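Listing S7. Sequence submitted for prediction.
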Amino acid sequence: MQRMYSPWRETYMQSFKDENAPKDATKSVFADIPPEEDEERYVLHRGERCFIIMNLYPYNAGHLMVIPYLQTPSFSDLDPQSRLEVMDFTDLSMKALERTIRPHGFNVGANLGRVAGGSVDSHIHFHIVPRWEGDTNFMPVLAEAKVISNDMRTLYRNLRQAIAEILEQTAG
């Protein structure tokens, strides 16, 4: 069996490790992002129990994640209100993506554990990956490159605006 790797992601993951921290105190890359860094870190929206963030190494343009504030590897550790907010934010994410980049569909889910593909297996998070008919092509296979045709900063601004509009419409 041939395996394909994405080593560029390791650089990102390693950048958040504190070499002096005790092993049991290691925080995930998603933990403790201060609100003043939201724009810099691409945090789109915050709730009481979780937040929506753009994936810095997306599988497709608009790849978002919903992340509980509680750092846990287990879905069962999330209280009912957190699970509900995760689902509400997943729905909000898809609506914002439909308004901004109009995908044909979505892959939605979580990789629970390293063997399931979880690169940050200590902090559960949920992926929303927009999909388009024909979005799989030869570039990742032959050129070891993924073509992302959207500017992250522009997409961030557009998604934040869409989220604000959706929340305003549902509130009133």
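Caption to Listing S7: primary sequence and predicted structure tokens for the chain studied. The mean pLDDT is 82. The two ends are 55 Å apart (CA to CA).
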